[in-house]
Known about the structure:
- The protein is an alpha/beta fold.
- It has a single domain (3-294), classed as Rossmann fold, CATH 3.40.50.150.
- Helices cover 42% and strands 21% of the residues.
- It has helices at residues 3-22, 28-41, 43-49, 58-76, 92-99, 116-123, 164-174, 191-201, 228-237, 263-276, 281-284; strands spanning 82-86, 103-108, 132-136, 149-155, 175-186, 206-211, 216-221, 240-242, 248-250, 287-294.
- Strands 1, 2, 3, 4, 5, 8, 9 and 10 form an eight-stranded mixed beta sheet that branches. Strands 6-7 form a two-stranded antiparallel sheet.
- The longest helix has 20 residues, at 3-22.
- The chain starts with a helix and ends with a strand.
Amino acid sequence: MPICQFANLLICQWDFRIFENSWQKMDTRTFFELFIKELEINHELRNYYRLLNNESRFYWRKAYLEQRLQYINNNLGTASGKIWDAGCGFATVSIFLALNGHKVFANTIEFYYDFIRRRLDYWSRFGNLDSLEVEYSNVFDRPAMPEVYDSIVAQDTLHHLEPIHDAIKIFMASLKPGGRLIAAEENGRNGFIIGRNLFYRGFQRVTEYYDERLQKTVLLGNENARSLNSWRSILNKGGFDLAEDTVEFIRIFPPACFTGKNYYQVIEKEKKAGKKLLKLREFLFFGVNFTALKKPL
């Protein structure tokens, strides 16, 4: 084992002793400190999250990830509950939630599903992950489990689900009365996102591919980013009320604005800008977070 990796493992073990003695739950700042150390020894993750790929963009990228995780955590409430992390990817959110006492079911059909076990080995040093179950499965293929979950988390997931109205029906049926769908999405009205998506996939907003593990053809939203108004309409038709006071637009400042000294101050300025620029925020901000509540029958 290279010396640098061995040193990182020793640091992680030391952090675990500190964490075990002084914390019962893990906040987002502590989680990201440990997450960055994980990236230093896990190259599959490093290439995906790109936090360590460019020093000048480190705090900018970290801010986006941390704001989204903090948003999810804030909108779950304080009580432990049963959560479905739909389209969990590398299961970063799932791990964080499990470490904080939630019972989490996570599913994905991404190729990096096989890397998740290695991640669980790392994070088990910092807390109990027995409440986390990760599965390779499609949202549309899972057996119906009516009113099981208190919350459903969908980070960068909704724009991949097609037919979207069928997916919303599944989420609606799976939530307990009063349950919530917490989403973090790219803002489909942002000019950069519109241009980027047109460049890479043209107007083909929905595609399909053959999944070797599932042994079937899967329909996929092809970076099918939508505006907040579009999500509001889709959710309303599916039996949800979008909670307007939970809407949060994030990422407007360029990488050069973020440094280690002003990191959290810039995030606060960004939040204030999102509240003041009501008529422009849907065009200027890169990401949008929102929570939708299951309507009473």
